[in-house]
Amino acid sequence: MIDGVYIVIIAGGRGERFWPLSTSINPKPFLKLIDGKSLIELTYLRAKRLVSEERILFVVGEEHLKALLDSISGINMDSLILEPEGRDTAPCIAYSALLLEEKKGDSVMVVFPADHYIEGEETFQKAIEKAVEFAEKGDYLVTFGITPQRPETGYGYIKVGESLEEGEIPVYRVETFVEKPSYEKAKEYLDSGQYYWNSGIFVWRTKVILSELERYLPDLLLGVKECVRLYKEGDREKFIWKYKNLKKISIDYGVMEKSNKVLMVRGDFLWDDVGTWSSLFRLMAQGEKANVTIGDPFILDVEGSLIFSQGVKLGVVGLKDVIVVATEKGVLVCSQKYAQAVRDIARHFSSK
């Protein structure tokens, strides 16, 4: 257990690339995708190995409360921070940091996205401990970089600069953040050895992140402070209106890419943000002819594919390197290499 630390699990987004299974009411973090467990449940179990239950907080949209309670039983309602509407990670982090500091004073805050998959728990814990050590002793915003295993175009990257600590768990100053690259650029990054996948996991003191929010997103922070005031005064209507009109911006773009206080701890654990059906295919045990089947589909002469059926009869014959997902809400058929484009399909049907 790590003393004096609070873990904030943030569950946002719509998981559009998991269409047709993911919906606005039951998005990706709440889908039971791996070993019969949802990603948010796996994240919660991981957090419980690091801190006591009363030090775990959840930030979820009000419309996702039922999905959360269905995923994790026995949650203390005092641990919930409910957003009237998701406005990306900067407002949500500002909101939770303000509430945490108000209740507990300047505290070390560890931010876990609810939709990540991690293996190597001992290595992961050591990396968290190292990040906490730096966050406690300095005015740092600490993130984690994952050594890239392939030229991945679906992740952001971190380029490291000066080394602050070598050894088992190296720590670097961050030189720059890079948006999702082309395949050619991703291959350059992989070959250079200077770039890491941006994990989106953070460690900082509440005082430090609020100071950096005030520096780089002052209007947003003022807006969130006003939301906190309205909520405490019981003016729910104005609170909802104000929150829904906060600037929609990520903490990466709004703060991390601008701040000179950012450090990166190298994470040598297996990490995946499970962003697409193809990422799920990589994580799950492959059966005969390198296929992953979920549900009860019938397949014949299929190779290197993910075949998922839920509530419908599904037969797939003579295909290779494809994703086929059939549910009562819709049917998806695509090549593995086009898994990122599933978002476009989800947006097409949501606009109808």
- H/E element string? EEEHEHEHEEHEEEHEHHHHEEHEEEEEEH
Helix content: 25-40%
What Rg do the Cα atoms give?
21 Å
- Identify the quaternary structure here: single chain
Q: Please work out how many helical segments DSSP would assign.
A: 11
What is the class of the largest domain in the CATH system?
Answer: Alpha Beta
Low-pLDDT regions:
none
* The CATH architecture of the largest domain: Alpha-Beta Complex
The overall pLDDT average reads 95
Query: Looking across the biggest beta sheet, what order are the strands in?
Result: 8-11-9-10-12
CATH superfamily name of the largest domain?
A: Spore Coat Polysaccharide Biosynthesis Protein SpsA, Chain A
The tally of domains stands at: 2
Q: Structural class, please?
A: alpha/beta
Cα distance spanning the termini: 49 Å
**Global shape:** globular
Annotation, overall tally of beta strands: 19
Question: Beta-sheet strand percentage?
Answer: 25-35%
CATH topology of the largest domain: Spore Coat Polysaccharide Biosynthesis Protein SpsA, Chain A
